[in-house]
Amino acid sequence: MSETRIAAPDGTGDFAAYVATPEGKDPAGAVVVIQEIFGVNESMRKICDWVADLGFIAVCPDLFWRIEPGVQLTDGSEAEWKKAFALMNAFDQDKGVEDLKATLAHARAMPGASGKAGTIGFCLGGRLAFLMAERSDSDVNVSYYGVGLDGLLGEAGAIRAPLLVHIAEKDRFVPPEARDKVVAGLQGNPHAEVHVYPGVDHAFARMGGHSWDGRAATIANGRTAEALAAALG
Questions:
Q1: What is the pLDDT of residues 177-187, one digit of tens each?
Q2: Residue 124's domain is classified under what CATH number?
């Protein structure tokens, strides 16, 4: 729908973010949509449009801007996969979290915003949404098939807002022991809710993607909608 620019917190420049706004919802909560390793592509823009259709302002920042601004890849070719992994490996996660915090603050202050804001992330973004639950004041965080979450459990005690974690049982990038460690590590945490979706692979909620599963995606997205509505109004 539109684009905004956000000042980098380290003073090195600014970065673009795709924005989708709801119809007739004023004031509205805001959701920072966190990209996969493929950049702010058509899939991410469609997710933003879906979030706006739920009644929230959606803001999806270009997190690879320090490496290559404007990346838009798909999962349709080996060359794109190689480039996506190269970008992920070059990505500074800590700077990315700081950029997301800046995006969260920007979203809270946008025209029509209510001041409440959360995050929803996929793949790399699922990992970053988990980190935002640990390191930011986001009002709610949703992680779809985040990678390496088992290595982030040391900070789980810092989670103070609702965290919804969607895990693919057959995730090709998450070994079963890592999945089980995340489930066990968040068990008993009053702020965390974890769901494992049987028989599905990584990216099961990316419509049109290599692992799309309509049933699991619909169930996960319904839980996401409920979590966002409960936290953001």
A1: 999 999 999 99
A2: 3.40.50.1820
